[in-house]
Design a protein that fits this description.
3-stranded antiparallel β-sheet; mainly alpha; 6 helices
Length: 127
């Protein structure tokens, strides 16, 4: 059985991000309002994305006075899955290869490496 995170498109991710940012169940109209404020999508496009996410088992729906949608995938789980997939796909499954590539491309500097070192040693290197 495949992981639902595997099949989430960039467009569908916008719906999940709206739900994650809100922090709880939302009506379809609330999702439409939030997503359309940051995209040029019309309501029917957003409704289609909501239906697709339901079909992928990434959203749950609860019928009350209105239908309430909730993300079935947490932002942390999605991020963790995608990070692992990136490392496996492009860096031979080795985090060190990713860090080396970022360092070589000047995406991270010595301060970042020092913070990573503190985190690995169990210190309070992050806020």
């Amino acid at each position: 059985m495949s992981n639902p995170c595997d099949r989430i498109t960039e467009a569908e991710l916008q719906i999940l991000r709206a739900l994650w940012a809100y922090g709880g169940p939302m009506t379809g109209n609330e999702i439409i309002t939030r997503v359309s404020s940051s995209t040029a999508w019309n309501p029917s496009t957003i409704k289609t994305l909501i239906r697709r996410l339901q079909g992928k088992d990434a959203l749950s729906v609860e019928q009350r006075n209105v239908m309430l949608y909730s993300a079935r995938i947490s932002e942390a789980d999605f991020s963790e899955y995608q990070t692992a997939r990136l490392i496996d796909s492009f860096y031979s499954g080795k985090v060190a290869n990713l860090i080396s590539a970022l360092y070589d491309q000047k995406q991270i500097g010595p301060e970042d490496l020092e913070e990573l070192r503190r985190r690995m040693e169990g210190g309070k290197g992050h806020e």
